[in-house]
Amino acid sequence: MKPRVLIIMGSDTDLPVMEEAAKVLRRFDIPCIMTVASAHRTPERTLKLIKNAEKSRIQVIIAGAGMAAHLPGVVASHTIIPVIGVPLDASPLGGMDALLSMVQMPPGIPVATVAVGKAGAKNAGLLAAQIMAGNDPALARKILDYRKEMTTEVEEKAAKIERKN
Amino acid sequence: MKPRVLIIMGSDTDLPVMEEAAKVLRRFDIPCIMTVASAHRTPERTLKLIKNAEKSRIQVIIAGAGMAAHLPGVVASHTIIPVIGVPLDASPLGGMDALLSMVQMPPGIPVATVAVGKAGAKNAGLLAAQIMAGNDPALARKILDYRKEMTTEVEEKAAKIERKN
Amino acid sequence: MKPRVLIIMGSDTDLPVMEEAAKVLRRFDIPCIMTVASAHRTPERTLKLIKNAEKSRIQVIIAGAGMAAHLPGVVASHTIIPVIGVPLDASPLGGMDALLSMVQMPPGIPVATVAVGKAGAKNAGLLAAQIMAGNDPALARKILDYRKEMTTEVEEKAAKIERKN
Amino acid sequence: MKPRVLIIMGSDTDLPVMEEAAKVLRRFDIPCIMTVASAHRTPERTLKLIKNAEKSRIQVIIAGAGMAAHLPGVVASHTIIPVIGVPLDASPLGGMDALLSMVQMPPGIPVATVAVGKAGAKNAGLLAAQIMAGNDPALARKILDYRKEMTTEVEEKAAKIERKN
Amino acid sequence: MKPRVLIIMGSDTDLPVMEEAAKVLRRFDIPCIMTVASAHRTPERTLKLIKNAEKSRIQVIIAGAGMAAHLPGVVASHTIIPVIGVPLDASPLGGMDALLSMVQMPPGIPVATVAVGKAGAKNAGLLAAQIMAGNDPALARKILDYRKEMTTEVEEKAAKIERKN
Amino acid sequence: MKPRVLIIMGSDTDLPVMEEAAKVLRRFDIPCIMTVASAHRTPERTLKLIKNAEKSRIQVIIAGAGMAAHLPGVVASHTIIPVIGVPLDASPLGGMDALLSMVQMPPGIPVATVAVGKAGAKNAGLLAAQIMAGNDPALARKILDYRKEMTTEVEEKAAKIERKN
Amino acid sequence: MKPRVLIIMGSDTDLPVMEEAAKVLRRFDIPCIMTVASAHRTPERTLKLIKNAEKSRIQVIIAGAGMAAHLPGVVASHTIIPVIGVPLDASPLGGMDALLSMVQMPPGIPVATVAVGKAGAKNAGLLAAQIMAGNDPALARKILDYRKEMTTEVEEKAAKIERKN
Amino acid sequence: MKPRVLIIMGSDTDLPVMEEAAKVLRRFDIPCIMTVASAHRTPERTLKLIKNAEKSRIQVIIAGAGMAAHLPGVVASHTIIPVIGVPLDASPLGGMDALLSMVQMPPGIPVATVAVGKAGAKNAGLLAAQIMAGNDPALARKILDYRKEMTTEVEEKAAKIERKN
């Protein structure tokens, strides 16, 4: 099946975190590709990935990186496919460096930034799904179901804790 | 013409900043509505706006707020329309409070966060346009033209500075 | 016995921290209920809990959450029962995200914010007790006794350390 | 009429900010006294104010201070009357110093901390009112009316902005 | 021998850190007492310790505390004996809370603040010694010797590393 | 009269802030010298000033600097005269850079750090006086009088505000 | 004369700050070119500038940018000419965003980062000169003279302040 | 072979981090010396090292330190050899203290600052190599080869992850 989302990470060590995005997409039966590219160490490769994404009609790009995390911004500057940035906690500064390097994109080239780390990676998957659901009623229904399951899950956990009181 | 984007701000004093989002959208001939709603002071009104947005098939919601800026998160928790959050600099903490209140959304409900203040508001408009361009080739062309104009503008400014050297 | 305090947490994983609030309340024989609700994943459940709290004449609500911690603010926007917010350390940003998401509530809807983590949860229990003690002289006496015990405890520890000198 | 709330500020230059708390209280016909006391420069005076507050059955104490803002914590350590802390922006560090000096109170002695500056001072007044409303149904009604007025105010502002669209 | 320095810590769990101050003082044969007192939980005890310190002609007071670390400021407000503050890392905020609660003392009552944690505790002992050395040439000589030893120690470590090159 | 305190600042533009230290010292009739020296631009001059200070039996050195504020640390590394550091707000980072560059001195060489800016400069003067008062009962009395005046001043301001209530 | 240093800034509004770098270079008779290029809005132009710099044997590149300041990192990823990054204060976050976006470059591609704003721009010019002085004894002498002038300047300012004492 | 780079660290415990710089240099066959010197505990030794470096025609100095990390600034103030500063994470403040103590050098004396910790140490080695490559075409070729290897390495890792998809 043709992939609809491209997930790029700055380093292969980011895989355990970025997997969270892929898991969410798989759950919604959204085909995606995951790969590695560094804005700084492999700028040409990054460009080629973007060109391929445009040719194969990728609908959303998710890019995760740590430290001075330029990857999503660099990707966004070469395409108008929406880019979601996931800041990673990869230095002693607790991910604040990656967060500011993504969210503070100057006027002209936006990056849709989510939370630092695993929570952010998961939300990146969800945001990508929500963006594509605008023209995909079946996907929209799946996301609504997912939300209901979250509700049920919270209610079950609540019930357990209430019983213990 | 039917609006495609809803811009909500937490207070009418946020208008000069949030106007930047509307300007970008107008430039791309994307009809939008701008209004005020507070996640905290008018929770019911916020809910009604979301229900109306869903009925009138709004495609993207942009929400700007300052301080403990819950507006985009609260909106996002009631709809699967993609929500873009614009953190505003409305306290002595320089907008860091609004930024963290938006970008650090816990897993399950994403907010696409952009930069603090005017730069962010402008990018929110651009991001909304890019999201809608996925199914609107005419809009995609306009955004590509806009990017070319940015290039030309930078080159003209560069030429002026180079002459002065 | 009818509960007087409602303790809500954003996730069941917050229980070991929020337990500190319940422990303090139990020590003062203040009945309380503990449950889970997420401002974002279960907004309706959150509303229902608040309505029930008002009906059953809950006197104080304690709400703990991490990341973009909207729970106490959302609760506070739907009731005038005093709401105490406990910011939790649930992301690589060390709880600063949760702290600012609570304490920086915009004008109109206050959240009484305490320290990040266990120390805050314990103080939330004490603050709830102090609020209720205004009309409950027996409770006031218990809190004063508790303070004396703290004094004694510090003095005993001091004595031990002084002996070692 | 006997005052029910004591407002203390660390310096007379804090008056324009702390006035916001008094304004809210006056609006609800809650008598209050405002005065100056420094935890550091006038520790004895601070103690005397607390003793007097206890004798005259003050129900809530609001304390505002800047920098290493110990005033609310010192007050709270000498009484079990609930203490609300308002961090003031009085140094080049933007109020972060005062915020952390209040909200991070160690376990045992809570301070109910609100936002930095005027927004916080206003919310301190509202929180004090909400605490007292638990046993004062007339006051509770006034607060509920106030909330409705906030709603109306936001709606009017929204209408203005919507017309301009 | 009559103690010349009083070391107070906010909690007995601070002992392993504050020990560093005592070790330095012992090395210079400066008698000191170590004890526990909390600015908030035992304000009276804190006052009594200060009065005793004045009576027994203590020359420097070292006070260590974490979180909203008021202990050194409260001590300093009741005496003109120089007070050295050691901020402790006792919350998820990494000691930044304790640091700002000490160093940002408002005009009128200074606290001589040193680094967060063990490095600061050690330097507190050295600073106390330097303050007393002004009138104690024998102590001055010991401190100068200590500095020379530090130099030798660094040189030995340097030699080891240089050999490995 | 022989100066007892040396006030060094990193730049002549720091004079309006560092004057606060000199004012306090003059009020206590403590002779002091004020001068400029940069740890980085004039390292030799800095060394010479320290040697002179030791020869002329200066008792305390106050050093103020902004940005990467090494001046007090560099001074402290060349003498055992107690060094008080005043961090100045001289960059867009609000003085946090200067604060951390002073207070976080590594083990071995302490700098007694006070608050950022004017409040800190004033407290540096007071701390210097308190250090010297240990062997100067007349000075001790002056400082105690100063504290009483502060008390009176606060009480007068309090009275004014109370009358306005 | 052939330029030896290329100064790039992200926006023409950065000119008043980046001019400081050019002024220093002119003072040392080092020919330089100044121009504008945005890593995000004009990625191709940025690449072309780098290729030209390599062809014309530019020895050092200085790049200034604000917000998520990727310019120096992007430049550095395409050349092995040393790149100096000047973080600019161009958002409500005080330049902390630009600083972390430059200095936290991940392993493989270094950016030599200097201080935020004008001080940094000036130091970027000096650092460029120092780098080139390694093979240019005449330039080395000019830099040494410049340092002596700085010393004299500080001494003159010191003399003025000492006279006022 | 005559060393071309001097690596100084503030403490022998910094060796595992600073080794990263030496490894990079060795890989490019650039001879270097590694040693320990503390700006504060061994100022004279630091000066002597600089004088020796100048005599032996060292081309770049790399200095790593933690906390109030003055070492690179102090070195830079005594020589015009380019100084690269590596901030180390050596306190509870996560390296932010060392970073600001280096990068915020005031105008006149630049320090080329890189990232906190190991990533920074490695980049310091690379930056030193790039600075020397300006006059050493063989070295330039080695750095270009290194970059190609980085590209290959990323591509191999990408291939592995893509296969797993």
How would you sum up this structure, described in words?
Eight copies of one chain form a homooctamer. With 165 residues, chain A is of the alpha/beta class. The first copy, chain A, has six helices and five strands, in the order βαβαβαβαβαα. The first copy, chain A, has a five-stranded parallel sheet with strand order 2-1-3-4-5. The longest helix of chain A has 28 residues, at 137-164. Chain A is globular. The mean pLDDT of chain A is 96. Chains in contact: A-B, A-C, A-G, A-H, B-C, B-D, B-G, C-D, C-E, D-E, D-F, E-F, E-H, F-G, F-H, G-H. The interface between A and C is medium-sized, with 20 and 20 residues.
List the topology elements.
8 copies of one chain form a homooctamer.
Chain A: E1 5-9, H1 15-27, E2 32-36, H2 43-55, E3 60-66, H3 71-76, E4 83-88, H4 96-103, E5 112-113, H5 118-133, H6 137-164
What oligomeric state best describes the polypeptide chains here? homooctamer
Largest sheet: number of strands, sense, barrel closure of chain A: 5 strands, parallel
Pair with the most extensive interface? Answer: A-B, 38 and 38 residues
Structural class computed from helices and strand pairing of chain A: alpha/beta
Low-confidence stretches of chain A: none
On the 0 to 100 scale, the average pLDDT of chain A is 96
User: How far apart are the termini of chain A?
Assistant: 50 Å
Helix and strand succession of chain A? Answer: EHEHEHEHEHH
Helix content of chain A: 40-55%
Keywords:
165 residues, homooctamer, five-stranded parallel beta sheet, alpha/beta, 6 helices, 5 strands
